[in-house]
Amino acid sequence: MITEDWIKQCATTDHDRYSRHADRERQNDDLTLAEIEQALVSGRILEQYPDTGRPCRRSSRIPTSELRAMSQHCAFCGHKHLTAKTTRYIHQQADELLIVDDVPCLACDYCGEQYFDAAVLKAIEAEHSAIVRHCKTPQAVKPVAVESFNALSG
Ligand SMILES: [Zn+2]
């Protein structure tokens, strides 16, 4: 069973992972990783789910130790095989985008959901913040096309 102490320990020692889905939700809500961590450290468990053999689906934030103990099950489909890969990751901070290639993750062999170590996401968030503050110059800058669906031809 997941306990508050266990969540706090995972959150304060970077022994956790974010699914790509959870990370997108976090960025859509304009929350930093530090704000999520603070909520986990000071929050309470409001509801326990039955033990389905999968981590809590609602949070999609899975402590690394839990994943290892569960033979790295996918939180979304329950598939047992996650494979270490690298992928392209797009970080959004307000209207600023940062594209990072070759980001390490675990990917579900069945549904494709990806999981990122909190430490990896923290490094990306810090790098993007430095670029936005003009403390660091990115390797390349590319124009990004923006379109409204109503303006699409077709
Ligand atoms: Zn899956």
Automatic annotation (TrEMBL):
Pfam families: DUF4258. This is YgiT-type zinc finger domain-containing protein. It comes from Thiocapsa rosea. Gene3D superfamilies: 3.10.20.860.
